[in-house]
Structures are given as structure tokens and as C-alpha cells.
């Protein structure tokens, strides 16, 4: 007689938190200000303003935008501000920084909506493998929030996890 295979993970009170679920959907864009600088290094205000006025801003509609400068140019803050002005009402969100900074900011905002009540006094595993770019900071923020209410926090998969926190 064969024994029935029981999925103990499915029957446990363990909650799996997949940070991919918090990945904000939408296109990502980056605007490199060096394209509007003379030789990629020198900002000439009149030329810069003209380039911004002629730029096709609609391509960023409903997307997330990272504004940065890929060269060693010293870019004044007002140049980022002026660029951001054109994205108001078009982009969902805009940051000054690399695409990695953009993802970090988006995850911070998304994790602020994490429902901690559903995790109260429960064992939680933060899933480790992702297909989307989840920044390391998101994992740190997740445990910092979750350990406030959870019974325990693990990292990885139910079959092989690393214990990170246990309420004493």
C-alpha cells in the first residue's frame, strides 16, 4: 500500500512573500542629460533649454523615468528640475539617478503598502529567486518591516531557507 504524499509546506501556516509581487508594472526609461551637453560635458543654458523644448516627451507616457548624466559633467540641480518639469503629468514617477536608483525608490514606495496585519505572529519566508530586478535594499526593508510583527522570518525557498529572525 502506497503512502499518500503530503505537501507539508502547503498545509503549514508559513507565508511566502515574493517581492516580485511588489514590482510596479510599467515601462522604465532613462534620460541621460549628457546628450544635451556640448561634448557631453558643458551645459549651455540656451542650448539645453531648446533641446528640452524640442524633445518628444510623450514617449515617457505612464512610465517610470530615471534622469542622470553618464559623463563626469557637473550638472546643476536646476537642469534636473527643468527636465522633471517636462515629465510632470506624463511620467508616473521620476527620480534623479540611475535605473538602479529608480528601482530602489519604486520598491521603497511599494513596500510601504505591505499589509503587516496578515503577517502577525506567522512564520514568513521572503522568496529569494526572482526574474525581475529586485534591489537588495528591498530585501532589507522587507525584513525590517516584517520582523516587527512576524513570528519568524526566513529567506529563500521553503525547501531550503536561511533563518533570519525568530521572536523570542
Write up what this structure looks like.
There is one protein chain. The protein is of the alpha/beta class and 168 residues long. The protein folds into two domains: 8-24 and 116-166, no CATH class; 28-91, no CATH class. It has five helices and seven strands. The strands form two sheets. The protein has a four-stranded mixed β-sheet with strand order 1-5-6-7, with helices on one face. Helix 2 packs parallel to helix 3 (77-87) and helix 4 runs parallel beside helix 5. It is elongated. The mean pLDDT is 92.
Task: Label this structure with key terms.
single chain, about 170 residues, alpha/beta, 2 domains, four-stranded mixed beta sheet, three-stranded parallel beta sheet, about 30% helix
Q: What is the strand and helix layout of this fold?
A:
Layout: H1 8-11, E1 15-17, E2 28-32, H2 45-54, E3 64-68, H3 77-87, E4 93-96, H4 99-111, E5 123-127, H5 136-146, E6 152-157, E7 160-166
- SSE sequence, one letter per element: HEEHEHEHEHEE
Give the count of structural domains.
2
Unreliable stretches, pLDDT < 50, 5 or more residues? none
Overall helicity: 25-40%
Distance between the termini: 43 Å
Task: Note the quaternary state here.
Answer: single chain
- Separate helix tally: 5
Class by SSE composition: alpha/beta
Can you count the beta strands? 7
The geometry reads as elongated
Largest sheet: 4 strands, mixed
Compute the CA-based radius of gyration.
22 Å
Mean pLDDT over the residues: 92
Biggest β-sheet: strands ordered side by side in the sheet:
1-5-6-7
* Beta-strand share of residues: 15-25%
Amino acid at each position: 500500500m502506497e503512502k499518500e504524499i503530503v505537501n507539508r509546506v502547503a498545509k503549514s501556516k508559513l507565508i511566502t512573500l515574493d517581492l516580485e509581487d511588489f514590482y510596479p508594472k510599467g515601462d522604465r526609461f532613462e534620460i541621460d542629460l549628457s546628450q544635451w551637453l556640448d561634448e557631453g560635458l558643458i551645459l549651455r543654458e540656451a542650448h539645453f533649454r531648446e533641446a528640452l523644448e524640442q524633445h518628444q516627451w510623450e514617449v515617457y507616457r505612464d512610465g517610470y523615468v530615471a534622469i542622470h548624466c553618464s559623463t563626469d559633467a557637473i550638472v546643476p540641480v536646476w537642469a534636473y528640475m527643468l527636465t522633471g518639469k517636462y515629465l510632470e503629468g506624463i511620467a508616473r514617477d521620476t527620480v534623479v539617478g540611475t535605473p538602479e536608483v529608480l528601482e530602489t525608490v519604486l520598491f521603497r514606495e511599494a513596500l510601504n503598502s505591505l499589509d503587516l496585519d496578515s503577517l502577525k505572529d506567522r512564520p514568513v519566508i521572503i522568496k529569494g529567486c526572482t526574474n525581475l530586478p529586485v534591489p537588495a535594499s528591498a530585501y532589507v526593508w522587507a525584513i525590517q518591516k516584517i520582523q516587527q510583527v512576524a513570528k519568524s522570518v526566513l529567506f529563500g525557498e521553503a525547501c531550503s531557507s536561511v533563518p533570519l529572525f525568530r521572536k523570542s
